[in-house]
User: Fold this.
Amino acid sequence: MNLWKLLLNFAGWNVDISAQRRDKCVICVAPHTSNWDFILGLFAYKSLGREANFLMKEFWFFFPLKYLIKALGGIPVPKRKTGVSLTGTVIEMFRSRPYVNLAVTPEGTRSYIEVWHTGFLYIAYGAKVPVQLGVIDYKNKDIIICEEYFPTGDVEKDMSYIRSFYSRYSDVARYPEKFKA
Assistant:
């Protein structure tokens, strides 16, 4: 048993990541209402010997923290518009690297929002990779990635399917009042 799994077990968490192991995929994680979501998701993935990348505000990439964040798979997202498409940059990363499992939170914040970000769908479709649907269930203490979805390129249709999937989990967030599928 590795340290990651030991820590999760000690805290009473179960890991059910049964979606196909892939070298390249986007991992959609919702609900996202707490900073603990990141820690739990990271521990769960590492408990299976897997590595994941994640997008994080460039603000956090300062010395010496940037070395830890990058070692954990962090990819800085610039705050100001540079004329370079983040979506295009990430798609190129998928094309040029042999392994990318990119975890994203479509809500983009831990606060309540109505409209989810769609960039992860454009990335998955452009990179021709599946979206694996992940849930951090505080109610039952389960971390789940069991379903996979291949985007069609019709963002409305794709988002409708994904939000429908997550509607089953509307009451399992750490702060359920901050989540809307």
The CA atoms of residues 5 and 47 lie 5 Å apart. The chain is about 35% helix and 20% strand. Strands lie at 14-17, 24-29, 53-57, 74-77, 100-104, 131-137, 142-149. The helical segments are 3-10, 36-47, 65-71, 86-96, 119-127, 155-167.
